[in-house]
């Protein structure tokens, strides 16, 4: 600031003091190069701008506000540019001016003589001399003219280097200032490109925030490549991707060690746990050796045991075959929604079941002898036998009684498929109240025992369940409890008991305390009891609540 | 790409900490129709940068709404986050959640304190063509990366945090404009020049 002031005043002085003689000479020469008046005005305006900015800063700092850095920086660059321009203009003629303060005052009293002297400072003088000696030492043995030549050459080189450096600095400075202030120098993005960028940006935003464009369709959702490291142990070895919201009903087939030689194709249905049902569609398990009439007969899994819908559904499907189909389908659905561990255990169970089925195939054949022409009916019966076959293995005498009772029952009711299926349904869908209540007169004592066993569990005291009093005799309470003892011990192998809530497959097993879910020891359960054979005694008390 | 490096330099200067590499596999799970009253969404984040992959579960709740929220330049929303074990995925599957989509973020992040604990992540969002194939992920928008500035806040101090975040975002003004998640911004006209200046040697010219 002092220098600028000094320049302004110095200029003024020069103009005024030698009025006549020197004015024309200096002024014409100098004014060609630099209009000193304009320099003065520019300096003044710059001074005002800077002081204004400083005042703004003051106000901001007093108000403790956050300065808008963009504005500040732009203002600074403006001031900077202006100063730079002034300095450059003056530089051209700086040689013809001497800058010195106008008045001597306390501020500059000490330094003024130094400024005005032309002799170098002592330190500077020493430096000067040493450099001179250094320079000339190398050339002392050469004639003077050669020395002069060499020195000139060096000077030229240095001059050239300096010039190029200065030029570069000036260029970058101008470019730097230019971009800040001159929008025309900016490389403009044309509209097409801007639109493309905008579109991409929207794509990215929707992908991150909503997942658009990231969803894979169902058929691409199989894990074909190797899993990344962090997911390897998350998924079990046998497992596949479960539970996709895509309802295309994809299947992932594991290779279950299932025997398919069971004489009832129903067994195969139950053994088709290898196929995991993805999604909620009640499509048939493809690839299993099941009569495909199973598929799409019913699309309503019993979601809630006592919901009017499910019961109404049952009532609306009078055909026993359909009902049994529905049962089985629901069973399948339940199985297929299990976690892999459960599935594996279930597979093992089914193994046993199938083996037992083989052992008990005679029973089925007996039924065949009963002349039941309907294949499905037979399946139903044999399925029912499967229920009993495991307790047969466990407790042969009593189970045989049961089985024979069942046989008798079947013989009695052969002609009425409805009744049989009703009883069958009784085991699987307690919502089938109406049907069951109408079947009170059936002389199937043993089966009623079974149902009584079911009711022995406190859950079945629910009125909606509709177990009539006639079924309450519990002659074989022990057997029933043992048979139906889900057993907390069997926590691992529990089938999802519920048909209602498809999600709770893990929560339901073994917890007979859960009222809403464990209403039905369905056929599935019964199959498990064989495994519980050793545990019957232990787990019994657990069931008494 | 050059802009990304420039942004990194700028962030380095502003934050004062070193950047951390970021590689997160994010799985977004949606609840099935029978679970709960309304559909809910849960995100599982697996940090693949650690020597041992760590899992986090995050639930993003509803954002602040209302006239006041419109004026706040920053989106304020509830977020629940917790560390979980690697069984979380199976757990949620067994609860009935289904995989809705997954994505992989690769980039870097800065964590620093400036009025609030601010986290800035610059990442390329990649999608996987094959399920869970994180090694074969391709960018959703090649060449464009996502910059997120987040800071945790409580219901009492969220206004201060809002101020801190928005003022920090102003520092990034020459390079990019940040906006709420639902609003798009476009390219900043000075971005190229700002990036160039950030990338130049010395970072700035001396006068």
TrEMBL record, chain A:
Protein name per UniProt: Mediator of RNA polymerase II transcription subunit 8 isoform X1
Composition skew (Low complexity), residue ranges: 254-265, 321-353
GO cellular component terms, semicolon-separated: mediator complex
Biased composition (Polar residues): 283-320, 354-364
Region named Disordered: 1-20, 247-371
InterPro entries: MED8_plant
TrEMBL record, chain B:
Keyword field: Activator, Nucleus, Transcription, Transcription regulation
An individual GO BP term: regulation of transcription by RNA polymerase II
Coiled-coil residue spans: none
Cross-referenced Pfam families: Med18
One GO term describing the cellular component: core mediator complex
Gene3D superfamilies linked to this entry: Hypothetical Protein Pfu-838710-001
Subcellular location: Nucleus
GO MF entry, a single one: transcription coregulator activity
Signal peptide: none
Top-level taxon of origin: Eukaryota
Keyword Glycosyltransferase: no
InterPro entries recorded: Mediator_Med18
Function as written in the Swiss-Prot or TrEMBL entry: Component of the Mediator complex, a coactivator involved in the regulated transcription of nearly all RNA polymerase II-dependent genes. Mediator functions as a bridge to convey information from gene-specific regulatory proteins to the basal RNA polymerase II transcription machinery. Mediator is recruited to promoters by direct interactions with regulatory proteins and serves as a scaffold for the assembly of a functional preinitiation complex with RNA polymerase II and the general transcription factors.
Subunit record text: Component of the Mediator complex.
Name by which UniProt lists this protein: Mediator of RNA polymerase II transcription subunit 18
Species of the source: Olea europaea subsp. europaea
């Amino acid at each position: 600031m002092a220098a600028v002031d000094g320049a302004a005043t110095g200029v003024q002085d020069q103009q005024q003091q030698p009025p006549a003689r020197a004015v024309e000479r200096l002024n014409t020469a100098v004014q060609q190069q630099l209009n000193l008046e304009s320099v003065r005005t520019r300096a003044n305006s710059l001074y005002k701008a800077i002081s204004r900015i400083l005042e703004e800063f003051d106000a901001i700092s007093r108000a403790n506000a956050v300065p808008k850095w963009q504005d500040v920086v732009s203002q600074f660059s403006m001031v900077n540019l202006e100063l730079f321009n002034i300095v450059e203009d003056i530089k051209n003629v700086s040689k013809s001016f001497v800058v010195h303060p106008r008045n001597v005052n306390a501020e500059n009293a000490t330094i003024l003589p130094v400024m005005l002297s032309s002799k170098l400072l002592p330190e500077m003088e020493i430096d000067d001399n040493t450099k001179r000696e250094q320079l000339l030492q190398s050339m002392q043995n050469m004639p003077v003219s050669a020395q002069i030549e060499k020195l000139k050459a060096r000077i030229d080189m240095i001059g050239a280097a300096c010039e190029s450096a200065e030029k570069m600095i000036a260029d970058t400075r101008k470019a730097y200032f230019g971009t800040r202030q001159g929008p025309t120098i900016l490389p403009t993005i044309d509209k097409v490109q801007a639109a493309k960028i905008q579109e991409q940006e929207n794509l990215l935003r929707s992908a991150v925030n909503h997942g658009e464009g990231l969803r894979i369709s169902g058929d691409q959702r199989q894990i074909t490549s190797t899993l990344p490291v962090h997911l390897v142990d998350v998924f079990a070895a046998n497992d596949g991707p479960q539970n996709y919201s895509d309802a295309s009903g994809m299947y992932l087939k594991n290779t279950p060690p299932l025997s398919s030689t069971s004489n009832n194709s129903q067994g195969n249905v139950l053994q088709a746990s290898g196929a995991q049902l993805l999604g909620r569609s009640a499509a048939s398990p493809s690839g299993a050796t099941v009569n495909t009439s199973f598929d799409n007969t019913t699309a309503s899994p019993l979601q809630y045991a006592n919901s009017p819908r499910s019961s109404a559904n049952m009532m609306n499907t009078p055909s026993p075959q359909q009902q049994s189909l529905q049962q089985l389908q629901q069973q399948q659905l339940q199985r297929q929604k299990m976690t892999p561990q459960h599935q594996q255990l279930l597979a093992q169970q089914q193994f046993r079941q199938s083996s037992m089925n083989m052992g008990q195939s005679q029973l089925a054949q007996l039924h065949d002898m009963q002349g039941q022409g309907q294949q499905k009916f037979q399946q139903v019966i044999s399925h029912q036998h499967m229920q009993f076959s495991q307790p047969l293995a466990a407790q042969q005498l009593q189970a045989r009684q049961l089985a024979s009772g069942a046989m008798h029952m079947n013989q009695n009711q052969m002609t009425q498929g409805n009744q049989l299926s009703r009883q069958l349904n009784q085991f699987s869908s307690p919502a089938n109240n109406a049907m069951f209540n109408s079947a009170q007169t059936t002389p199937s004592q043993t089966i009623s025992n079974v149902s009584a066993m079911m009711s022995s569990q406190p859950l079945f005291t629910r009125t909606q369940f509709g177990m009539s009093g006639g079924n309450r005799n519990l002659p074989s309470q022990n057997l029933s409890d043992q048979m139906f003892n889900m057993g907390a011990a069997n926590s691992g192998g529990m089938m999802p008991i519920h048909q209602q809530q498809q999600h709770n497959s893990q929560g339901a097993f073994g917890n007979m305390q859960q009222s809403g879910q464990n209403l039905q020891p369905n056929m599935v359960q019964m199959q498990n009891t064989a495994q519980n054979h050793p545990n019957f005694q232990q787990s019994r008390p657990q069931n008494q609540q | 790409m050059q802009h990304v490096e420039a942004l990194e330099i700028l962030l380095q200067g502003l934050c004062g900490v070193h950047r951390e590499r970021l590689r997160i596999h994010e799985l977004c799970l949606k609840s099935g129709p029978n679970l709960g009253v309304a559909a809910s969404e849960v995100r599982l984040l697996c940090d693949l940068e650690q020597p041992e992959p760590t899992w986090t579960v995050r639930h993003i709740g509803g954002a602040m709404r209302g006239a006041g929220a419109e004026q706040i330049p920053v989106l304020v929303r509830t977020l629940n986050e917790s560390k979980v074990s690697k069984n979380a995925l199976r757990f949620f599957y067994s609860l009935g959640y289904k995989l809705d989509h997954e994505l992989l973020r690769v980039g870097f992040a800065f964590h620093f304190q400036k009025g609030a604990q601010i986290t800035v992540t610059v990442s390329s969002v990649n999608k996987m063509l094959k399920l869970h194939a994180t090694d074969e992920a391709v960018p959703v928008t090649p060449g464009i990366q996502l910059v997120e500035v987040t800071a945790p806040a409580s219901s009492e101090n969220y206004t201060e945090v809002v101020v801190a975040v928005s003022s920090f975002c102003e520092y990034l003004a020459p390079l990019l404009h940040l906006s709420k998640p639902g609003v798009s911004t476009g390219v900043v006209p000075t971005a190229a020049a700002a990036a160039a200046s950030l990338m130049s040697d010395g970072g700035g010219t001396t006068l």
